[in-house]
Amino acid sequence: MVIIKRKLGYSIVNFLKHNVNGGFILMAMAVLAMVVANSPLYPFYEAFWQLPIHLQIGDFNLFSHHGEALSLHHFINDALMAVFFFLVGLEIKRELLIGELSSVRKASLPVIVALGGILVPVLVYWLIAPSGDAMRGAAIPMATDIAFSLGILGMLGSRVPIGLKIFLTAFAVVDDIGGILIIALGYSEGIQWGYMTGVIICITTLYALSKTGVHNKWAYILPGIVVWYLFLQSGIHSTIAGVLVAFLIPTEKTPQRANLGGHSLLEYFEHKLDDPVNYVIMPLFAFANAGVHLSGGSDMMGMVMVATALGLIVGKFVGLFSFTWLFTKLKIVALPGVSNWKAIAGVCMLGGVGFTVSLFIANLAFGVKHPDLLAQAKTGILVGTLVSGILGYCILNKVLPPVKKHSENNG
Predict the structure, then answer these.
(1) What is the pTM assigned to this prediction?
(2) Cβ 113 vs Cβ 177: under 8 Å
(3) How many other β-carbons are positioned within 10 Å of the β-carbon of residue 393?
């Protein structure tokens, strides 16, 4: 038990460290994308993302959708983001096994709080944009960006108690689960059951490998790539492949002959992917997707922009804080060693920092069919994230105790 607690403690600290640092880079790339998209470089910026990507083996191109090569933009959103969701899946599995979701008692708080943070933003969005094509974006404000929000929280340094960080991380992980379900169920069109049959065969094979104690990483990487390709052709978004394969990665310690240093495959993949995801994939995704051309013909102050921004700023805060307060007062859940309700309010405001997954859902909801609505959604995400981040930081900066100086301690 002591070993498990030590490993869990290291895991949380390592997770927070990587995501806090990655959050700052994410912010910088989002700002850079906005600057470039509203500069004379905009035509080059747009054309660059439309370049085709090929990984050719004879006549077969792995990076293609129904025979058409993926553009660089689609490669980032459909292929590289599958790696991001693979890492998210690994983190969710870890939390389910030994973390904040490993028991009913531990999971009850983040699940209930996240439920409020999902339902209320969708309700706010629906009240503003209740019908038509705009309604396709109702799920956009339900996501909390872990890296971005922890990056803002990290600006307050050691003033932030670990309980607040765990609280934010835990409900954001459950948010991710909700986002994954929405992507799988809400944005799938024209499912090709022939390809899905192949998916089922590959998933069954991976499950059998996991249960029979196979620890060779390539036994999961190669079938995982096949699963991704089949999902890409199937009509269900290909990033779901990353999550499913992650859930099948073994968690048992590997024998020394596996050359993984005695770690489990789950730990191995988490360690190997942390830096590439946080410092390459997510910043690249931000740079490719956050560039909104404000001088274009789109009405940036349209219904979708307002619904998205208020869903993040008002909906996330009201949903997260009201569910936390209500179910704590009813003694159904207990806060993780945090009794300062003003600090809880600040963290709930940071829940409105919905960048990566929100942008991802916006692309699925509107894509190339509704470019005006997509531009509005992106603007709403940026406004909602910026306002939520600033308000959350200001609240926490005001209510958290200052760091005691050594002279005061000795004095």
Answers:
(1) 0.82
(2) no
(3) 18
